[in-house]
């Protein structure tokens, strides 16, 4: 509320905060780019369908068969949609909400589409990197060691602690995963380096990122891949990757040789991901829908 004790500039700032609040709370604000991306209903339906298709005990997706979170960000990192597959926000791991947002941000931040790379570059049509591709590279001694600390999460955005300006208190947790999620319309930041995050593409152009979390990281990748496909956001059109498979350029790679002395082991290609509990089978991984 406003009081008679504030100076003019302070009152003006407070008024702006109050006026801006409902727009963000109702999933408005932030970026016109979000208008061209799938909204809450589409994300929720695609996410739920990708999990349901996995069958009992994870099925082809592997993992635990949990409910999951999904997040879409636009090319600038603004959160456009947050959804979950369960009946309410407590039906899936709450910590995975922010992890899904990190993954969406990472897939967007570290992938490139057409018109992004010089014609004489190593990947002239663009380079797609999923979060699963980053695991080995960020380990001690890896070529991207420290990457995961480079772009911290904006915690007030993540948890809605001051979603409508200073002094308004935490957001209602019941809004998490709805069109009123406090992350909507704001940049979340964060870097995540295990499976479940992707760039999203239309006509070979990167148009944002998708993140999925709530099960094992290998299952997050599988469900995220199927979710992206259902949303028609895997239109790579020749964008390259590190997987060695043109039909699945940013697919998860299981090429880590265990280290007999402990640690994370060694990836033959430098972009490997560890296997997980109830790991997806090799045939399930290679049998994911091909990119369009």
* Unreliable residue runs: 1-30
Q: What portion of residues belong to β-strands?
A: 5-15%
Shape-level CATH architecture? 2-Layer Sandwich
- The assigned structural class equals alpha+beta
Number of structural units classed as domains: 1
| Mean pLDDT reading | 87
Quick one: CATH superfamily? Haem-degrading domain
**What is the H/E string?**
HHEEHHEEHEEH
- Characterize the overall form: globular
First-last Cα distance: 52 Å
DSSP helix fraction: 10-25%
Q: How many strand units?
A: 6
Please supply descriptive tags for the structure shown above.
292 residues, alpha+beta, Beta-Lactamase, four-stranded antiparallel β-sheet, two-stranded antiparallel ribbon, 6 helices, 6 strands, 24% helix, globular, disordered N terminus
Write the layout of secondary structure elements.
Blueprint: H1 8-25, H2 40-52, E1 69-73, E2 79-84, H3 95-109, H4 155-159, E3 197-202, E4 205-213, H5 217-230, E5 256-257, E6 266-267, H6 282-286
Antiparallel strand pairs: 1-2, 1-4, 3-4, 5-6
């Amino acid at each position: 509320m406003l009081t008679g004790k504030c100076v003019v500039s302070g009152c003006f700032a407070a008024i702006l905060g109050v006026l801006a609040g409902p727009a963000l709370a109702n999933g408005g604000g932030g970026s016109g780019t979000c208008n061209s991306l799938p909204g809450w209903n589409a994300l929720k339906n695609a996410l739920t369908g990708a999990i349901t298709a996995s069958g009992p005990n994870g099925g082809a997706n592997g993992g635990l068969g949990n409910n999951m979170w999904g997040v879409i960000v636009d090319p600038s990192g603004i959160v456009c949609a947050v959804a979950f597959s369960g009946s309410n926000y407590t039906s899936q791991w709450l910590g995975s909400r922010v992890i899904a947002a990190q993954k969406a941000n990472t897939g967007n931040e570290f992938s490139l589409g057409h018109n992004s790379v010089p014609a004489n570059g190593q990947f002239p049509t663009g380079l797609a990197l999923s979060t699963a591709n980053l695991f080995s590279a960020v380990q001690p001694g890896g070529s991207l060691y420290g990457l995961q600390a480079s772009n911290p999460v904006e915690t007030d955005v993540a948890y809605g602690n001051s979603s409508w300006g200073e002094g308004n208190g935490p957001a209602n947790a019941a809004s998490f995963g709805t069109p009123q999620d406090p992350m909507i319309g704001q940049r979340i930041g964060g870097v995540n380096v295990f499976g479940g995050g992707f760039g999203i593409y239309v006509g070979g152009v990167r148009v944002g990122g998708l993140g999925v979390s709530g099960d094992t990281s290998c299952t997050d990748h599988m469900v995220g891949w199927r979710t992206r496909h259902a949303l028609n956001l895997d239109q790579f059109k020749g964008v390259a990757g590190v997987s060695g498979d043109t039909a699945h350029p940013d697919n998860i790679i299981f090429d880590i040789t265990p280290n007999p002395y402990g640690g994370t082991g060694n990836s033959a290609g430098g972009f490997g991901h560890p296997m997980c509990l109830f790991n997806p089978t090799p045939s399930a991984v290679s049998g994911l829908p091909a990119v369009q």
